[in-house]
Amino acid sequence: MMMSRTVIDSTTGEISQQSIERRCGTRLHSECEHCSTIYKREATKVLQSGVIDESGNPLLITMLTLTAPSSKRFGKTHTRIKTTSGKYRPCYCGEWHDEASRLLGLPIDPDTYDYTAAAEFNRNATRLFAVTLQKLNRVLGRSRGNNLRVARVVEYQRRGLVHIHALVVGRISQDVLNLVVRGGVNPRTGYKVKAASSNGWQWGPKCDASVRPAVQAAAYVRKVVSYAVKDTVSSAGGVGVHASRMSEAGAVARKCECFANHCAYGRRVVRMGNEYLYIKNPSSLICRRRRSGRKNWGFTGHVLSKTRNWPMTFGQLREARRQYAMALAPTTLVPLSPWSKPIPVRRDE
């Protein structure tokens, strides 16, 4: 991304243009391959730091998969139904679909599909996972200073609902996960455990805890990172009528303080009598909420996050990269505006 400014010499009156090349910083491979590659490398480095011990040996990890409620809650979609014997049954529509079919994930009846509920679940998924993690620590008897070390990534299913893959350092059995997700009696304490929920939402029936050998830790780190650079187009088929309706529902799900029928994305709306005045205000977070909800189909937060006890952060990596770039050549700090922080620009000798 190129940024430019006009410089006027106060002594000579000479006017010149200066250009600064700055990365856009996106994680999405579809928007910028270069920045996405940098993000992917940093994410891999951060995640690898948490699945090895002080000697550099890989640790035992558990891969948690938490899915959205079934089609009974939102509406039936085109799918490939696999039986316990490994064979496939016809779709709900009566047809057979192969893996490359563009119909997979789309509602059979878009007019009766509950898009509002789908966007609401996406909005509550982050909080629901936080509640699930709290219950896991309590069921396992973990104290606050000894909580589980967890990194999670969000992936969009073909039907547009999010599900979560989490790397947990240590062993989590399927029985413990079922106790937290479905509720029951804790065998360790004898107390009753309620099912994890957030605003009435709970996880779907296909929740899995797979304990993986330590030697497979690096492979699952790469798998998790590959989910983080996807967008709704590449992972959920974000085109067509289904995508547009999910976008509209996502915009509504993200609460906005603007007037409902006069919300201008990225601008604040002020009412003066019977007229509505649109005032540009990029620093406002009001309409950014709806813009984010439209883009992410209601989902809030970052697709990749980790607990505070994770050894390395993105900030540490970026600071190290900045120090390295500053040491390559003399630099000058160029402020782009009174509200922006100075950006180091390399000066060729």
List strands and helices in order, with pairings.
Elements: E1 2-8, E2 15-21, H1 33-50, E3 61-66, H2 71-74, E4 81-82, E5 88-89, H3 115-139, E6 150-156, E7 162-169, H4 174-182, E8 184-185, E9 192-193, E10 208-212, H5 217-228, H6 232-236, H7 240-253, E11 267-272, E12 275-280, H8 286-296, E13 304-306, H9 314-328, E14 331-334, E15 343-346
Helix pairs in contact: 1-5, 3-4, 3-7, 7-8
Quickly describe the structure:
With 349 residues, the chain is an alpha+beta fold. The protein has nine helices and 15 strands. Strands 10-3-7-6-13 form a five-stranded antiparallel beta sheet, sandwiched between helices. Strands 1-2 form a two-stranded antiparallel ribbon.
Notes on the structure:
With 349 residues, the protein is α+β, with helices and mostly antiparallel strands. The chain has 2 domains: 274 residues, no CATH class; 36 residues, no CATH class. The protein is built from 9 helices and 15 strands. Strands 10-3-7-6-13 form a 5-stranded antiparallel beta sheet, sandwiched between helices. Helix 1 packs antiparallel against helix 5, helix 3 crosses helix 4 and helix 7 packs antiparallel against helix 8.
Keywords:
32% helix, 20% strand, two-stranded antiparallel ribbon, five-stranded antiparallel β-sheet, alpha+beta, 349 residues, globular, 2 domains, disordered C terminus
Low-pLDDT runs: 282-286, 331-349
Average pLDDT, all residues: 78
Give the CA-CA distance, first to last residue.
24 Å
Count of all domains: 2
Q: Which overall shape is indicated by the principal axes computed on the Cα atoms?
A: globular
How much beta, percentage-wise? 15-25%
How many strands, what sense, and barrel or not for the largest sheet?
5 strands, antiparallel
Tell me the number of helical segments per DSSP (H or I, 4 or more residues long).
Answer: 9
Structural class: alpha+beta
**Helical amount:** 25-40%
